[in-house]
Amino acid sequence: MPVVNRIADFSDDMKTWRRYLHQHPELAFDCHKTAAYVVERLREFGVDEIHEGIATSGVVAIINGQKPGRTIGLRADMDALPIEEVTGVPHASTIPGKMHACGHDGHTAMLLGAARYLAETRNFAGRVALIFQPAEENGGGAGVMVDEGVFDRFEVEEVYALHNLPNEDVGRFITTPGPIMAAVDTFEIHITGQGGHGAYPHQTRDPIVAAVGIVSAIQTIVSRNTLATDDLVISVTQIHTGSAENIVPQTAFVGGTVRSFDTGVRELIESRMEEVVAGQAAAYGVEAQLIYDQQYPATINDADRTAFAVDVAKRVSGDAAVDGNDGQQMGAEDFSYMLQSRPGCYLFLGQGESAGLHHPAYDFNDDVAPVGASFFARTVELALPV
């Protein structure tokens, strides 16, 4: 079955909703106006229950089917990014320094489209919980919603989510059973030496030399402490120090990110990072403090639910437009917390040629919205047949 005809009928409405959200981006947990707009639409659709203020500004809406039964969860993230938009489109962000550069406006519009259809037709037995989540980009809003008991409170048994994917064919679905997105950790290393004159380095304890040594040594964790087949990335992305060409600075800062899949590897990295930083600091006669923060866990799809989601996707887009075994990616996603709590599946949805995610020229492709909304709707109808 292709895109649901009734959903195609209100594709212009989804475009209107999405572009309104794009013009009014909000960050992290501060998605109150976005949530209010979502709630206004949900009330128009006639959903059965609306629960607000979850994880500060999250919303859960319930639609009952024709008969009692299980509850399926569908999730969309609502938050934007602290980026200055350069698209120049008529519906560009009206908020300086904030924009929907990851397509969460589109994800929200797709779930609203599914909500409208499901509230009209109710061609399922059971309930659907529509989860509109804040703070995917920063703050782990999915984890907060789980901690606040949304799955237990609404008796959600399984959960699904979509994320748009630039530069893949429009309507192409991509997913994989098992790990699909990496765990993400961050680290900061604060180095304190003894500054002085650049002409007399022997009178200093140079934090720059120590920083360079630490950065080089950190790379050996990947090459010498883990298997070559382990999926692991350690990237130093920041080094800040110095003020003039003839001054050895007093301090230096090193920061970066770690991406992994295996929990044992994740623990090893933190332990080895502590040892490397301490050892290098001692070697160079400086003090160094490591701040290591384990953030989102790996996003792990349930194998059975993934096979089901792949079947749904094929019914929407056709067999040739679905890759159900695409492998792992090193990006991270806080939907991982929901998949730790309930089985489900996370899929990517191609949106055609565009700027990449988190780019100031990015804009969601509205032609994709009917495809994503159809996937959500058909997921409910096929998982909960009358």
Describe the structure in your own words.
- With 386 residues, the chain is of the alpha/beta class.
- The chain folds into two domains: 5-180 and 299-383, Zn peptidases (Aminopeptidase, 3-Layer(aba) Sandwich), CATH 3.40.630.10; 183-294, Alpha-Beta Plaits (2-Layer Sandwich).
- Helices cover 36% and strands 27% of the residues.
- It has eleven helices and 16 strands.
- An eight-stranded mixed β-sheet has the order 1-2-4-3-5-16-6-15, with helices on both faces. It has a four-stranded antiparallel β-sheet with strand order 10-12-8-13, with helices on one face. Strands 7-14 form a two-stranded antiparallel ribbon.
- Strand 1 (49-54) and strand 2 (58-64) form a beta hairpin.
- Helix 3 (32-45) packs parallel to helix 4 (104-121) and helix 7 packs antiparallel against helix 8.
- The model has no long low-confidence stretch (mean pLDDT 97).
Fraction of residues in H or I helices: 25-40%
Segments where pLDDT lies below 50 for 5+ residues? none
Distance between the termini: 18 Å
**How many structurally independent domains?**
2
Radius of gyration, rounded?
24 Å
> In order across it, which strands form the biggest sheet?
1-2-4-3-5-16-6-15
Query: How would you state the average pLDDT, rounded?
Result: 97
Report the order of strands and helices.
HHHEEEHEHHEEEEEHEEEHEEHEHEH
Number of strands: 16
- Note the main sheet: 8 strands, mixed
The CATH top-level class label of the largest domain: Alpha Beta
State the CATH topology of the largest domain: Aminopeptidase
Shape: elongated
| CATH architecture descriptor name of the largest domain | 3-Layer(aba) Sandwich
Total of DSSP H or I helical runs spanning 4+ residues? 11
Structural class: alpha/beta
How large a portion of the residues is in β-strands, by DSSP E? Answer: 25-35%
CATH homology group of the largest domain: Zn peptidases
